[in-house]
Amino acid sequence: MATLDNFRDKDFLDQITILNEISGNKDPEALPALLELLKSPVGDTSIDYMVVNALNAVLSGNEARVVEGLADPHDGFRILCIRVAGEHAFASAAAPLAEIAKSETDADRLMEVLISLARIGDASSIPTFRSHLQHSDPFIQSSCIEALGHLADTESIAHFKTLIEESEGPDKFETCELTTWKAVEALASFATAETITFLVDKLHHKNPTVRRIITDALVDIGPDCIPMLMDAFETGDTDHKILSVNILGFLGDRAGANGLVAAFDKGLAEDSNVRYAVYEALGRIGSMKGIICLVDGLSETDELILMAVIGGLEKHVNPGMISALTDLISKADDQSDRLCKAVIASRATSIFDALYENAGAGDGLIEALAQSNDPEIISEFRDLLSEIGGSRAEQDLTKLPDVSAASRKALAADDSRSMCAMHRAILTDMGFEPFVAANGEEAYDFIAQGEEFDIIITDMNMPVMDGMELVEKVRNTPGYEDIPVIMVTTESEASQQDLASKTGVSAFVTKPFKPETLKEKIRELTE
Fold first, then answer.
1. Residue 492's pLDDT is what?
2. pTM here?
């Protein structure tokens, strides 16, 4: 090509201009000269890189030349052709790539071939991926698992199940292997009754990271999981019930809410942890039957469960629910006090606004608010009272204390809104400034931003980043090697506490718990 004549003798800017022009017009006549520049580089890193880009552009429109290049003796050009074949999904490259994979001994080169085959997505490549499922390199195994999932190879399902089952072995469950992760995702991609049932059965996998991956996979599948999750709720142990309920809440489908209410009516939520999870899920879904169940839950006396009920109702305020709450709070008994504290601690501003119209209910709420030691909560409700306005609101504003931020700081992570509210209440009562997060990643962001904490409280099972991953990151952060970490969890298996202890957890509190239980543990570790 004339524009590449004497290319090596041209100045830098002219070379760049020429290569950019070729990349734009993809002129096939430039191919021989570009290939010569690839095999005998100019020596300038920037120019040599642009030569590869120009070659890539030209080859993108020349499938036959790419397939021919798969057997080229020049290593660099051959690899480039392998990548271009996958990038542009050249179907005719599938067979020669499969042949290369049969004899390729270099792991990195084999990975390049497999990635391109996966991108092409031709079913004829299935035997190639199957043949490397036992490869010694876990990245190659994982690439094959992922590809077979995308290609919907039903014959590989048994292998994927075996990988997940073996990952719970006594010498394996402490680590989430990449192959296990990919096997879960591959099974989820089938989304059949068989694969969904298997994943639901493995919801309480011994490794918390695998549990999170399975949870995410089932949520991605969607409502098709509901029948299997309801079966698990009705027949599983406590841990399995809780995890199943959590997913039903994340799915947000009315069929899930109706199933939970029916199971609740059958007496299948007698365990307090299960009941708490059901209320949280019903609050997320918001079906009519679910709201009625939540209103019935206003009679609960456990503080945490009551906060889950109030937190759920806060999202679905209606006249009937407000009327029931007004009647309960106006009785001015012990349950009234519990309800008022739950409304304040849950920061249920919509419920507060609706209840405040009634003097009896409003007085109870103001009394509970005045007892709060949380400056953030007091400020939020102070603003609300100012918006409500009127002489009564102005008088109530004078009853609120001025609370300054504490000198000690505590970090709490839990995907449950009501659990975070409980942690706030406990920590502010103890003189801590609370920082709360919905998952481990959000929690660690506070640390990454330079916040220093006297104690950390975390749930075990959370989305995005679970508690075990959070603790591991914390312990690997300078200055946090010895900061007390309390894990608050519903997990009942000893193996889970052993695993958490090895990761760096200082102490455990099992849900459900009384606030004083957690307070005692915090005092023990900080004083």
1. 67
2. 0.87
